[in-house]
Amino acid sequence: MPQLTRLERRDADMVLDWDDGTKHVVTYEDIRHSCPCASCSPLRNGDDSSIMLRQNVENLPQEKPKVKPIGKYAISFEWNQGCSSGIYRFERLWKLGEKQDPDGGKTYVHGAW
Amino acid sequence: MTRPPNRLMADSQVKINVPGQADPATSVEDQKQMEQAYNKMKRKMAIAQMGKAIKHKIMVLSGKGGVGKSTVATGLALSLAQQGLKVGLLDIDITGPNVPKMMGLDGHRLDVMDGRIHPAKGHLGVKVISMAFLLEDEDTPVVWRGPIKLGAIQQFIGDVEWGDLDYLIIDFPPGTSDEPLTVAQNLPDISGMVIVTTPQDVAVLDSRKSLSFAKSLKVDVLGVIENMSGYTIHGKSKPNETVELFGPGGKTISAIADDSGLWRATLDIFKSGGGKKIADDFNVPFLGALPFDPGFVRGGDDGVHRIVSEPKGASAIAFADVVSAIKAQVEQSSTQPELEII
Questions:
Q1: Which CATH code is given to the segment(s) B53-230+268-332?
Q2: A4-97 is classed in which CATH architecture?
Q3: ipTM of this predicted complex?
Q4: Which of A9, A19, A61, B108 has the smallest set of CB atoms within 10 Å of its CB?
Q5: pTM for the whole thing?
Q6: Contact map slice: A 12-51 vs B, CB within 8 A
Q7: Regions of chain B short of the pLDDT cut 50
Q8: A87: number of Cβ within 10 Å
Q9: Smallest Cβ distance to B341: which of A67, A73, A113?
Q10: What SS3 state is found at B120?
Protein backbone atom coordinates (compact mmCIF):
# COMPACT_ATOMS: atom_id res chain seq x y z
CA MET A 1 0.00 0.00 0.00
CA PRO A 2 1.32 3.49 -0.83
CA GLN A 3 2.35 5.86 1.92
CA LEU A 4 0.24 8.83 2.95
CA THR A 5 2.30 11.98 2.44
CA ARG A 6 -0.16 14.85 2.72
CA LEU A 7 -3.55 15.46 4.28
CA GLU A 8 -5.41 18.64 3.47
CA ARG A 9 -8.41 19.46 5.63
CA ARG A 10 -11.22 21.26 3.82
CA ASP A 11 -14.59 22.38 5.20
CA ALA A 12 -16.52 19.14 4.68
CA ASP A 13 -13.88 16.68 3.50
CA MET A 14 -10.17 16.08 3.25
CA VAL A 15 -7.78 15.42 0.39
CA LEU A 16 -5.31 12.58 0.88
CA ASP A 17 -2.13 12.46 -1.21
CA TRP A 18 -0.30 9.12 -1.43
CA ASP A 19 3.28 8.68 -2.54
CA ASP A 20 2.29 6.77 -5.70
CA GLY A 21 0.46 9.87 -6.96
CA THR A 22 -3.03 8.72 -5.92
CA LYS A 23 -5.30 11.45 -4.61
CA HIS A 24 -8.40 10.64 -2.55
CA VAL A 25 -11.19 12.80 -1.23
CA VAL A 26 -12.85 11.44 1.91
CA THR A 27 -15.76 13.21 3.57
CA TYR A 28 -15.80 13.80 7.29
CA GLU A 29 -19.15 12.02 7.43
CA ASP A 30 -17.54 8.86 6.05
CA ILE A 31 -14.66 9.25 8.48
CA ARG A 32 -16.98 9.58 11.45
CA HIS A 33 -19.27 6.78 10.31
CA SER A 34 -16.31 4.42 9.99
CA CYS A 35 -14.85 5.26 13.40
CA PRO A 36 -12.91 2.16 14.51
CA CYS A 37 -13.28 2.76 18.25
CA ALA A 38 -14.77 0.20 20.62
CA SER A 39 -18.03 2.15 21.00
CA CYS A 40 -18.74 2.96 17.35
CA SER A 41 -17.50 -0.17 15.58
CA PRO A 42 -20.04 -2.63 17.07
CA LEU A 43 -22.80 -0.35 15.79
CA ARG A 44 -21.78 -1.03 12.18
CA ASN A 45 -23.27 -4.49 12.15
CA GLY A 46 -25.66 -4.19 9.25
CA ASP A 47 -28.87 -3.82 11.28
CA ASP A 48 -30.74 -0.75 12.53
CA SER A 49 -27.90 0.38 14.77
CA SER A 50 -25.80 0.96 11.65
CA ILE A 51 -28.48 3.25 10.20
CA MET A 52 -28.76 5.00 13.54
CA LEU A 53 -24.99 5.59 13.62
CA ARG A 54 -25.14 7.10 10.14
CA GLN A 55 -28.04 9.36 11.17
CA ASN A 56 -26.22 10.43 14.32
CA VAL A 57 -23.18 11.33 12.29
CA GLU A 58 -25.25 13.26 9.74
CA ASN A 59 -26.93 15.22 12.54
CA LEU A 60 -23.64 16.46 13.91
CA PRO A 61 -22.72 20.05 13.02
CA GLN A 62 -20.21 20.38 10.19
CA GLU A 63 -16.76 21.06 11.56
CA LYS A 64 -13.13 20.81 10.56
CA PRO A 65 -11.35 18.41 12.94
CA LYS A 66 -7.89 18.62 14.42
CA VAL A 67 -5.74 15.80 13.04
CA LYS A 68 -3.01 14.16 15.11
CA PRO A 69 -0.48 11.60 13.87
CA ILE A 70 -0.34 8.38 15.91
CA GLY A 71 3.11 6.86 15.67
CA LYS A 72 4.06 6.00 12.10
CA TYR A 73 0.95 4.03 11.30
CA ALA A 74 -2.20 6.02 11.92
CA ILE A 75 -3.92 9.34 12.65
CA SER A 76 -6.73 10.43 14.94
CA PHE A 77 -9.34 13.14 14.62
CA GLU A 78 -10.42 15.51 17.36
CA TRP A 79 -13.95 16.87 17.01
CA ASN A 80 -15.75 19.35 19.21
CA GLN A 81 -18.81 17.09 19.11
CA GLY A 82 -19.12 13.39 18.47
CA CYS A 83 -16.65 10.58 18.98
CA SER A 84 -12.91 11.39 18.88
CA SER A 85 -11.66 8.02 20.12
CA GLY A 86 -10.95 6.23 16.86
CA ILE A 87 -7.41 5.60 15.67
CA TYR A 88 -7.46 5.36 11.87
CA ARG A 89 -4.72 3.21 10.43
CA PHE A 90 -3.46 4.37 7.02
CA GLU A 91 -4.85 1.16 5.52
CA ARG A 92 -8.29 2.20 6.72
CA LEU A 93 -7.96 5.66 5.14
CA TRP A 94 -6.82 4.07 1.88
CA LYS A 95 -9.88 1.81 1.84
CA LEU A 96 -12.18 4.75 2.55
CA GLY A 97 -10.50 6.67 -0.27
CA GLU A 98 -11.01 3.70 -2.59
CA LYS A 99 -14.69 3.53 -1.50
CA GLN A 100 -14.17 0.07 -0.07
CA ASP A 101 -15.71 -1.21 3.14
CA PRO A 102 -12.97 -0.47 5.71
CA ASP A 103 -14.14 -3.39 7.84
CA GLY A 104 -13.81 -5.81 4.93
CA GLY A 105 -17.47 -6.79 4.97
CA LYS A 106 -17.23 -8.15 8.47
CA THR A 107 -18.49 -6.75 11.70
CA TYR A 108 -15.44 -4.93 12.85
CA VAL A 109 -13.78 -6.52 15.83
CA HIS A 110 -11.93 -3.82 17.64
CA GLY A 111 -8.24 -4.40 17.99
CA ALA A 112 -5.91 -2.70 20.44
CA TRP A 113 -5.30 0.01 17.94
CA MET B 1 15.88 44.10 33.71
CA THR B 2 12.12 44.18 33.35
CA ARG B 3 11.02 43.37 29.86
CA PRO B 4 8.51 45.80 28.32
CA PRO B 5 5.09 44.24 27.75
CA ASN B 6 4.59 42.70 24.36
CA ARG B 7 2.90 45.44 22.39
CA LEU B 8 0.71 43.17 20.33
CA MET B 9 -0.40 41.22 23.35
CA ALA B 10 -1.06 44.35 25.40
CA ASP B 11 -3.22 45.82 22.67
CA SER B 12 -5.15 42.70 21.91
CA GLN B 13 -8.32 41.56 23.57
CA VAL B 14 -6.93 38.06 24.04
CA LYS B 15 -6.46 37.06 27.66
CA ILE B 16 -3.51 34.85 28.41
CA ASN B 17 -4.24 32.55 31.30
CA VAL B 18 -1.38 31.00 33.16
CA PRO B 19 -2.23 28.32 35.74
CA GLY B 20 -2.41 29.85 39.18
CA GLN B 21 -3.04 33.35 37.79
CA ALA B 22 -6.44 32.84 36.26
CA ASP B 23 -9.10 35.51 36.10
CA PRO B 24 -11.03 35.37 39.44
CA ALA B 25 -14.26 35.36 37.46
CA THR B 26 -13.25 32.07 35.85
CA SER B 27 -14.99 29.04 37.38
CA VAL B 28 -12.97 26.35 39.11
CA GLU B 29 -14.01 23.90 36.39
CA ASP B 30 -12.83 26.27 33.62
CA GLN B 31 -9.55 26.84 35.41
CA LYS B 32 -9.03 23.09 35.75
CA GLN B 33 -9.70 22.61 32.05
CA MET B 34 -7.30 25.40 31.17
CA GLU B 35 -4.59 23.91 33.37
CA GLN B 36 -5.11 20.52 31.73
CA ALA B 37 -4.90 22.06 28.26
CA TYR B 38 -1.81 24.05 29.28
CA ASN B 39 -0.08 20.95 30.66
CA LYS B 40 -1.05 18.95 27.59
CA MET B 41 0.42 21.59 25.33
CA LYS B 42 3.59 21.82 27.44
CA ARG B 43 4.03 18.05 27.27
CA LYS B 44 3.42 18.02 23.51
CA MET B 45 6.14 20.62 23.03
CA ALA B 46 8.50 18.71 25.33
CA ILE B 47 7.92 15.49 23.36
CA ALA B 48 8.62 17.27 20.07
CA GLN B 49 11.81 18.72 21.60
CA MET B 50 12.80 15.26 22.86
CA GLY B 51 12.40 13.92 19.33
CA LYS B 52 15.14 16.31 18.21
CA ALA B 53 17.44 16.17 21.27
CA ILE B 54 17.73 12.37 21.27
CA LYS B 55 19.37 11.09 18.11
CA HIS B 56 18.39 7.43 18.26
CA LYS B 57 15.57 5.80 20.19
CA ILE B 58 15.56 2.03 20.39
CA MET B 59 12.78 -0.13 21.81
CA VAL B 60 13.88 -3.45 23.33
CA LEU B 61 11.10 -6.02 23.26
CA SER B 62 10.50 -9.69 23.66
CA GLY B 63 7.41 -11.80 23.33
CA LYS B 64 8.26 -14.06 26.24
CA GLY B 65 9.24 -13.13 29.77
CA GLY B 66 12.50 -14.27 31.33
CA VAL B 67 14.64 -14.05 28.20
CA GLY B 68 16.91 -11.48 29.83
CA LYS B 69 15.44 -8.43 28.18
CA SER B 70 16.33 -5.99 30.98
CA THR B 71 19.82 -7.45 31.18
CA VAL B 72 20.21 -7.00 27.43
CA ALA B 73 18.74 -3.46 27.47
CA THR B 74 21.07 -2.50 30.33
CA GLY B 75 24.00 -4.16 28.55
CA LEU B 76 23.27 -2.30 25.31
CA ALA B 77 23.10 1.02 27.17
CA LEU B 78 26.38 0.35 28.98
CA SER B 79 28.13 -0.95 25.89
CA LEU B 80 27.16 2.21 23.98
CA ALA B 81 28.29 4.36 26.93
CA GLN B 82 31.60 2.45 26.95
CA GLN B 83 32.17 3.84 23.46
CA GLY B 84 31.85 7.38 24.80
CA LEU B 85 28.28 7.95 23.67
CA LYS B 86 25.65 9.79 25.71
CA VAL B 87 23.04 7.22 26.63
CA GLY B 88 19.70 7.10 28.46
CA LEU B 89 17.86 4.02 29.67
CA LEU B 90 14.10 4.19 30.12
CA ASP B 91 12.62 1.30 32.08
CA ILE B 92 8.99 1.09 31.01
CA ASP B 93 8.35 -2.10 32.97
CA ILE B 94 5.85 -0.48 35.32
CA THR B 95 4.98 -3.51 37.42
CA GLY B 96 8.39 -5.20 37.49
CA PRO B 97 11.02 -2.48 37.24
CA ASN B 98 14.46 -3.92 37.88
CA VAL B 99 16.84 -1.86 35.75
CA PRO B 100 17.82 0.37 38.74
CA LYS B 101 19.05 -2.66 40.67
CA MET B 102 21.23 -3.73 37.75
CA MET B 103 22.56 -0.19 37.43
CA GLY B 104 23.49 0.13 41.10
CA LEU B 105 20.71 2.65 41.70
CA ASP B 106 18.69 0.72 44.27
CA GLY B 107 16.74 3.02 46.57
CA HIS B 108 17.49 6.11 44.47
CA ARG B 109 14.89 8.88 44.34
CA LEU B 110 14.27 11.15 41.37
CA ASP B 111 14.79 14.91 41.43
CA VAL B 112 11.91 17.04 40.21
CA MET B 113 12.70 20.65 39.36
CA ASP B 114 10.30 23.13 37.75
CA GLY B 115 7.89 20.31 36.99
CA ARG B 116 10.55 18.33 35.08
CA ILE B 117 11.85 14.94 36.20
CA HIS B 118 15.63 14.60 36.21
CA PRO B 119 16.96 11.09 35.52
CA ALA B 120 19.32 9.28 37.86
CA LYS B 121 22.88 8.66 36.68
CA GLY B 122 24.05 5.06 36.76
CA HIS B 123 27.28 3.33 35.72
CA LEU B 124 29.30 5.01 32.95
CA GLY B 125 27.04 8.07 33.19
CA VAL B 126 23.97 6.33 31.75
CA LYS B 127 20.84 8.31 32.62
CA VAL B 128 18.08 6.12 34.03
CA ILE B 129 14.34 6.54 34.56
CA SER B 130 12.30 3.78 36.15
CA MET B 131 9.09 3.27 38.04
CA ALA B 132 11.22 1.76 40.80
CA PHE B 133 12.41 5.25 41.73
CA LEU B 134 8.85 6.21 42.60
CA LEU B 135 7.96 3.26 44.80
CA GLU B 136 8.04 3.59 48.59
CA ASP B 137 9.92 0.34 48.98
CA GLU B 138 10.83 -2.58 46.78
CA ASP B 139 7.91 -4.71 48.03
CA THR B 140 5.29 -2.17 46.98
CA PRO B 141 3.31 -3.53 44.03
CA VAL B 142 2.03 -1.30 41.25
CA VAL B 143 -1.59 -2.31 40.77
CA TRP B 144 -2.70 -0.19 37.85
CA ARG B 145 -5.09 -0.68 35.00
CA GLY B 146 -4.16 0.29 31.44
CA PRO B 147 -5.20 3.97 31.37
CA ILE B 148 -3.18 4.83 34.48
CA LYS B 149 -0.15 3.01 33.08
CA LEU B 150 -0.63 4.99 29.90
CA GLY B 151 -0.55 8.27 31.83
CA ALA B 152 2.63 7.27 33.63
CA ILE B 153 4.33 6.30 30.38
CA GLN B 154 3.34 9.59 28.78
CA GLN B 155 4.90 11.37 31.76
CA PHE B 156 8.05 9.31 31.40
CA ILE B 157 8.21 10.37 27.77
CA GLY B 158 7.13 13.98 28.03
CA ASP B 159 8.15 15.19 31.49
CA VAL B 160 11.72 13.87 31.76
CA GLU B 161 14.66 16.19 31.22
CA TRP B 162 16.91 13.84 29.25
CA GLY B 163 19.06 16.54 27.71
CA ASP B 164 20.98 15.72 24.54
CA LEU B 165 21.48 11.98 24.06
CA ASP B 166 23.00 9.86 21.32
CA TYR B 167 20.90 6.84 22.26
CA LEU B 168 17.83 6.19 24.36
CA ILE B 169 17.28 2.51 25.10
CA ILE B 170 13.74 1.65 26.17
CA ASP B 171 13.15 -1.54 28.10
CA PHE B 172 9.64 -3.00 28.10
CA PRO B 173 7.79 -5.74 29.93
CA PRO B 174 7.25 -8.86 27.80
CA GLY B 175 4.48 -8.91 25.24
CA THR B 176 2.80 -6.52 22.87
CA SER B 177 0.38 -4.67 25.07
CA ASP B 178 -0.14 -1.16 26.48
CA GLU B 179 3.48 -0.25 27.13
CA PRO B 180 5.12 -0.67 23.71
CA LEU B 181 1.94 0.48 21.99
CA THR B 182 1.86 3.73 23.99
CA VAL B 183 5.52 4.45 23.30
CA ALA B 184 5.16 3.66 19.58
CA GLN B 185 2.18 6.01 19.41
CA ASN B 186 3.67 8.89 21.36
CA LEU B 187 7.43 8.97 20.91
CA PRO B 188 8.44 10.63 17.64
CA ASP B 189 11.16 9.31 15.30
CA ILE B 190 11.75 5.90 16.85
CA SER B 191 14.84 4.36 15.22
CA GLY B 192 13.50 0.85 15.59
CA MET B 193 12.84 -2.20 17.71
CA VAL B 194 15.27 -4.83 18.86
CA ILE B 195 13.71 -8.22 19.63
CA VAL B 196 15.35 -10.33 22.31
CA THR B 197 14.77 -14.06 22.31
CA THR B 198 16.31 -17.17 23.75
CA PRO B 199 17.00 -20.05 21.35
CA GLN B 200 14.20 -22.43 22.34
CA ASP B 201 11.00 -22.82 20.31
CA VAL B 202 8.67 -21.43 23.00
CA ALA B 203 10.55 -18.12 23.14
CA VAL B 204 10.87 -17.97 19.36
CA LEU B 205 7.12 -18.50 18.97
CA ASP B 206 6.41 -15.46 21.17
CA SER B 207 9.08 -13.38 19.47
CA ARG B 208 7.32 -13.89 16.16
CA LYS B 209 4.38 -11.97 17.64
CA SER B 210 6.68 -9.10 18.58
CA LEU B 211 7.98 -8.97 15.01
CA SER B 212 4.45 -8.88 13.61
CA PHE B 213 3.61 -6.19 16.15
CA ALA B 214 6.49 -4.02 14.89
CA LYS B 215 5.33 -4.54 11.31
CA SER B 216 1.80 -3.58 12.22
CA LEU B 217 2.96 -0.33 13.85
CA LYS B 218 5.31 0.39 10.93
CA VAL B 219 8.29 0.59 13.26
CA ASP B 220 11.58 -0.63 11.76
CA VAL B 221 12.98 -3.84 13.22
CA LEU B 222 16.71 -3.32 13.77
CA GLY B 223 17.12 -7.03 14.37
CA VAL B 224 16.94 -10.04 16.64
CA ILE B 225 19.34 -10.78 19.52
CA GLU B 226 19.66 -14.34 20.77
CA ASN B 227 20.34 -14.27 24.50
CA MET B 228 21.49 -17.17 26.72
CA SER B 229 23.01 -18.73 23.67
CA GLY B 230 25.47 -21.35 24.80
CA TYR B 231 27.24 -21.75 28.12
CA THR B 232 31.00 -22.11 27.86
CA ILE B 233 32.74 -24.22 30.47
CA HIS B 234 36.48 -24.61 30.99
CA GLY B 235 38.54 -27.42 32.47
CA LYS B 236 41.95 -28.92 32.76
CA SER B 237 43.19 -32.37 31.78
CA LYS B 238 46.35 -33.88 30.30
CA PRO B 239 47.86 -31.89 27.38
CA ASN B 240 46.28 -32.64 23.98
CA GLU B 241 43.82 -35.09 25.52
CA THR B 242 40.28 -35.36 24.14
CA VAL B 243 37.65 -34.74 26.78
CA GLU B 244 34.11 -36.04 26.30
CA LEU B 245 31.19 -34.28 27.93
CA PHE B 246 27.57 -35.40 28.10
CA GLY B 247 25.70 -32.24 27.14
CA PRO B 248 22.00 -31.33 27.10
CA GLY B 249 19.72 -33.51 25.00
CA GLY B 250 22.03 -36.52 25.31
CA LYS B 251 24.54 -34.89 22.97
CA THR B 252 28.17 -35.83 23.46
CA ILE B 253 30.52 -32.88 23.16
CA SER B 254 34.22 -33.36 22.57
CA ALA B 255 36.90 -30.87 23.55
CA ILE B 256 40.61 -31.17 22.93
CA ALA B 257 42.93 -29.85 25.60
CA ASP B 258 45.75 -27.56 24.49
CA ASP B 259 49.45 -28.01 25.22
CA SER B 260 48.97 -26.81 28.78
CA GLY B 261 45.99 -29.12 29.28
CA LEU B 262 43.30 -26.43 29.21
CA TRP B 263 40.09 -27.13 27.34
CA ARG B 264 36.78 -25.35 26.78
CA ALA B 265 33.40 -26.47 25.45
CA THR B 266 30.09 -24.73 24.82
CA LEU B 267 26.85 -26.32 25.97
CA ASP B 268 23.65 -25.27 24.21
CA ILE B 269 21.48 -25.27 27.32
CA PHE B 270 18.44 -23.76 25.59
CA LYS B 271 19.19 -25.22 22.14
CA SER B 272 20.79 -22.94 19.56
CA GLY B 273 19.99 -21.05 16.38
CA GLY B 274 16.43 -19.96 17.25
CA GLY B 275 17.29 -16.27 16.98
CA LYS B 276 18.93 -16.63 13.58
CA LYS B 277 16.05 -18.71 12.27
CA ILE B 278 13.38 -16.23 13.26
CA ALA B 279 15.43 -13.36 11.82
CA ASP B 280 15.65 -15.25 8.52
CA ASP B 281 11.94 -16.12 8.58
CA PHE B 282 10.99 -12.45 8.97
CA ASN B 283 13.78 -11.18 6.76
CA VAL B 284 15.23 -8.95 9.47
CA PRO B 285 18.89 -8.75 10.57
CA PHE B 286 20.31 -11.14 13.13
CA LEU B 287 22.29 -8.89 15.46
CA GLY B 288 24.20 -11.62 17.23
CA ALA B 289 24.19 -14.07 20.10
CA LEU B 290 24.98 -13.31 23.71
CA PRO B 291 26.39 -16.10 25.84
CA PHE B 292 24.72 -17.63 28.86
CA ASP B 293 26.80 -16.09 31.60
CA PRO B 294 26.06 -16.69 35.29
CA GLY B 295 28.08 -13.54 35.92
CA PHE B 296 25.03 -11.57 34.75
CA VAL B 297 22.98 -13.02 37.59
CA ARG B 298 25.60 -12.14 40.19
CA GLY B 299 26.24 -8.73 38.62
CA GLY B 300 22.53 -7.93 38.46
CA ASP B 301 22.06 -8.80 42.11
CA ASP B 302 25.12 -6.81 43.18
CA GLY B 303 24.24 -3.79 41.06
CA VAL B 304 27.39 -4.09 38.96
CA HIS B 305 26.63 -5.19 35.43
CA ARG B 306 29.01 -7.72 33.85
CA ILE B 307 30.10 -5.09 31.32
CA VAL B 308 31.19 -2.81 34.15
CA SER B 309 32.91 -5.48 36.25
CA GLU B 310 34.66 -7.15 33.28
CA PRO B 311 34.83 -4.59 30.48
CA LYS B 312 37.09 -6.82 28.39
CA GLY B 313 35.37 -10.12 29.21
CA ALA B 314 33.69 -12.44 26.70
CA SER B 315 30.23 -11.05 27.47
CA ALA B 316 31.35 -7.43 27.08
CA ILE B 317 32.90 -8.34 23.72
CA ALA B 318 29.70 -10.08 22.62
CA PHE B 319 27.70 -6.99 23.60
CA ALA B 320 30.11 -4.74 21.71
CA ASP B 321 29.57 -6.88 18.57
CA VAL B 322 25.80 -6.64 18.94
CA VAL B 323 26.04 -2.88 19.49
CA SER B 324 28.14 -2.51 16.31
CA ALA B 325 25.46 -4.40 14.39
CA ILE B 326 22.73 -2.18 15.88
CA LYS B 327 24.66 0.98 15.02
CA ALA B 328 25.03 -0.21 11.44
CA GLN B 329 21.28 -0.84 11.25
CA VAL B 330 20.41 2.50 12.81
CA GLU B 331 22.48 4.29 10.18
CA GLN B 332 20.58 2.45 7.46
CA SER B 333 17.10 2.61 9.01
CA SER B 334 14.63 4.31 6.76
CA THR B 335 13.58 7.81 7.55
CA GLN B 336 10.03 8.11 6.35
CA PRO B 337 9.03 11.57 5.17
CA GLU B 338 6.78 13.19 7.74
CA LEU B 339 3.07 13.33 6.99
CA GLU B 340 2.11 16.89 6.14
CA ILE B 341 -1.19 17.89 7.71
CA ILE B 342 -2.72 21.20 6.67
A1: 3.40.50.300
A2: 2-Layer Sandwich (3.30)
A3: 0.80
A4: A61
A5: 0.78
A6: 19
A7: 1-17
A8: 20
A9: A67
A10: strand
